[in-house]
Recover the amino acids of this structure.
């Protein structure tokens, strides 16, 4: 046997060593020549069972037990070698499957950091998440064989783990039936050709229920005994509690992209794999995203918040702009794309991506078709959720401005960290000259021991500034001592050139941070509002903001609900809140447009009649970074608070337009009355 299995770069050079039993069966039609029941036969199948439980190592490379069973004892429907048709055959070794099965093993049982490094996985798991006892969620491209893999895992547990219970569930019954049928096919194959065969005391495949064992009748009663493993299928349609009350070593939830109640279904089922705080099993959830928003959002929430839901987190190495964040397991279209992997199962990633890019170029003539194709054949998770990997504000001009600000240190030179305080009832901003005890959060995803942040002022207000010259947008975080990466973010924007200072449409002040108490951020928002004599537009789903302003008897400093913006963005909106704005999808659509229009708006012309745009006067590094990276799924607090200010500005613009229109209408009515009176007098004179 050639023990060279993998080279130093992690490329498979002899993966067939993991499929030798399948290769032997294909050649001879049996696994072992030893007669049934003989000692050599017993020893052979004892070794095979050990490999299916413990995994199999050759030449320093190892695969898991479930992967070994899948390669050697599960037949799948796949394209025949050198042909363009599908047949029933043993699966190929894929590097994508190697990563998936090891991730599944790590989620359940954990692994040492040294052993993890030896695996040379394509996916990245941080050291603190290698301890096991977690569930696993997979977002995948279509036609990657996951139902066959799930069938193999189910069959392996049934055959080789005594008294194991597998629960296969889906929202639409057809998906759990499909996976159950693949598990049943694996059981039937094993019963016919292997030493894993088990008697059955329950055999109702059409009802998705199989249980191994036998009935002991020696006492006159049918007492179940023996292996007593089972596989059960359920459906969650209109019933998120379908899995509640059951006991399982493994719960498989199929096609999570079709679950409108995915979070509720998971919450109702998770106790089946726990006994108190002790993990007795795991959940494997997977699927392709949906183009229906009500189904996509819960799946998306689970995918991008794995640590919250006790799901094994991975570093997000796929989504541009989210590189420092966590997500669940992702199997992109370019991993083991048909026709784009070699005989050893190594994905030809560059060639596969090039093929996908060309295909998408052709589909550009049909945007809806392209969007649906990307959802089912994603290059990135954002593709799968219908977002796309490039932010809508990702324009070269912003990149140029960011480089300029950093190169010239403008965020430090022009931005003054301050302490806001009350002096004789008025807010004053005291400059902080030594940053020993405070850390300004200048950058996106800035790593800092202290995330309290500090207010920064780019332009102080002039005395007696009229009300409303400045606008404030506030994106609060949702709880005290927030455990996630979310920060409170406040931006103050000067909208007009008051007192001929030469500045308008630019950021006057900002605050980004996560103080220990949410009210500390609320206090800064209120003090900014008083300092700049304006009101605060905020995300009104976060109730502690209004509660704080009410307690301080300062509700007049909260911007009222922007009725005109909401009416234009959401037809027949039923949201009725007095203050702030509810950030629905349609409102975000509108807010994104307001930002993009504002960025590219001409602010003024210089002496050479060269136009200068609003983006050229943004000196906030973090905001520029977030604008470049922004998408609907990432955590972009600065962009959201900036959007709040844009909404407040738009509401004022619409109100002013309506006032002007009303004045014009009144003038037209007056003129019409005058001419009507004139015409009437002329008619009277004619009669005379």
């Amino acid at each position: 046997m050639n023990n060279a299995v993998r080279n130093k770069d992690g490329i498979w050079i002899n993966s067939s060593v993991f499929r030798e039993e399948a290769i032997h069966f294909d050649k001879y039609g049996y696994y072992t020549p030893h007669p049934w029941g003989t000692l050599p036969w017993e020893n052979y199948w004892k070794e095979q069972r050990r490999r299916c439980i413990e995994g199999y190592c050759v030449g320093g490379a190892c695969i898991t037990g479930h992967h070994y069973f899948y390669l050697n004892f599960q037949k799948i429907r796949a394209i025949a070698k050198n042909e363009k048709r599908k047949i029933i055959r043993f699966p190929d070794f894929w590097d994508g499957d190697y990563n998936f099965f090891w991730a599944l093993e790590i989620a359940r049982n954990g692994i040492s950091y040294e052993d993890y490094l030896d695996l040379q996985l394509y996916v990245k798991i941080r050291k603190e998440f290698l301890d096991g006892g977690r569930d696993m969620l997979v977002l995948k491209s279509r036609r990657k064989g996951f139902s066959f893999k799930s069938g193999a895992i189910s069959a392996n547990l049934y055959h080789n783990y005594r008294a194991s219970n597998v629960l296969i569930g889906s929202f639409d019954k057809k998906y759990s039936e499909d996976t159950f049928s693949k598990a049943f096919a694996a059981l039937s194959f094993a019963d016919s050709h292997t030493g894993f065969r088990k008697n059955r005391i329950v055999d109702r495949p059409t009802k998705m229920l199989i249980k191994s064992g036998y009935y002991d009748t020696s006492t006159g009663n049918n007492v179940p005994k023996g292996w007593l493993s089972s596989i059960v299928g359920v459906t969650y349609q209109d019933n998120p509690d379908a899995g509640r009350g059951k006991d399982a070593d493994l719960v498989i939830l199929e096609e999570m992209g079709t679950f409108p109640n995915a979070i509720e279904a998971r919450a109702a089922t998770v106790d089946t794999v726990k006994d108190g705080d002790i993990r007795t099993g795991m959940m494997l959830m997977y699927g392709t995203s949906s183009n229906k928003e009500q189904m996509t959002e819960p799946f998306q929430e689970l995918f991008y918040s794995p640590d919250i839901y006790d799901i094994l987190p991975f570093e997000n190495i796929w989504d541009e702009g989210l590189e420092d964040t966590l997500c669940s397991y992702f199997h992109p279209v370019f991993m083991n794309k048909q026709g784009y992997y070699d005989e050893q199962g190594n994905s030809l990633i560059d060639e596969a991506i090039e093929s996908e890019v060309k295909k998408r170029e052709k589909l550009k003539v049909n945007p809806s078709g392209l969007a649906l194709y990307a959802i089912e054949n994603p290059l990135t998770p954002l593709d799968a959720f219908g977002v796309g990997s490039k932010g809508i504000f990702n324009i070269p001009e912003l990149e140029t401005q960011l480089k300029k600000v950093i190169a010239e240190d403008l965020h430090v030179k022009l931005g003054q960290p301050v302490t806001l305080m009350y002096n004789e009832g008025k807010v004053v901003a005291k400059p902080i000259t030594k940053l020993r005890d405070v850390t300004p959060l200048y950058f996106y995803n800035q790593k800092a021991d202290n995330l309290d942040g500090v207010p920064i002022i780019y332009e102080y207000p002039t005395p007696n500034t009229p009300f409303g010259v400045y606008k404030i947008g506030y994106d609060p975080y949702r709880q005290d001592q927030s455990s996630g990466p979310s920060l409170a973010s406040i931006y103050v924007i000067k909208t007009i050139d008051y007192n001929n200072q030469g500045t308008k449409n630019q950021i006057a002040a900002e605050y980004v941070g996560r103080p220990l108490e949410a009210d500390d951020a609320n206090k800064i928002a209120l003090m900014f509002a008083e300092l700049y004599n304006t009101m605060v537009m905020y995300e009104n789903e976060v109730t502690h903001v209004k509660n704080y302003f009410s307690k301080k008897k300062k509700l007049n400093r909260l911007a009222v609900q922007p009725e005109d913006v909401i009416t234009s963005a959401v037809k027949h909106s039923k949201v009725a809140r007095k203050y702030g704005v509810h950030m629905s999808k349609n409102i975000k659509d509108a807010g994104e447009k307001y930002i993009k229009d504002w960025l590219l708006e001409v602010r003024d012309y210089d002496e050479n009649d060269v136009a200068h745009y609003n983006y050229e006067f943004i000196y906030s590094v973090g905001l520029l970074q977030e604008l470049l990276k922004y998408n609907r799924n990432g955590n972009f607090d600065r962009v959201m608070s900036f959007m709040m200010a844009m909404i407040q500005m738009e509401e004022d613009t619409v109100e002013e337009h309506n006032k002007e229109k009303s004045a014009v209408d009144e003038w037209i009515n007056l003129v019409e009355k005058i001419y009507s009176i004139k015409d009437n007098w002329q008619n009277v004179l004619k009669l005379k």
